[in-house]
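Proteins fold. Shown next:

***
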Amino acid sequence: MKIKEGFILKDIAGESIVVPVGENLVDFGAIIVLNETGVFLWNLLQEENDEAGLLQAILSEYDIDEQAATEDINSFLASLKENKLLNDAHAD
């Protein structure tokens, strides 16, 4: 899975905000603000990655237990999918 083309992360007034570009400007009606962990995961998803890779990266970067990290990753991925920001080879 990977972030879809046409979305970038911008620092606006100290907030990390997902911004649509190109054709996505018309269709995207949400404002998504990411925290530090969200930015970390977003950056990992600029390249093809899977949940196991995300989990290992989070565990290496942050002092967090595996269960909490897994829950955070699942919540983040669900938000990306809900807002159609993720290319997922396994999605229908």
Summary: The radius of gyration is 13 Å.
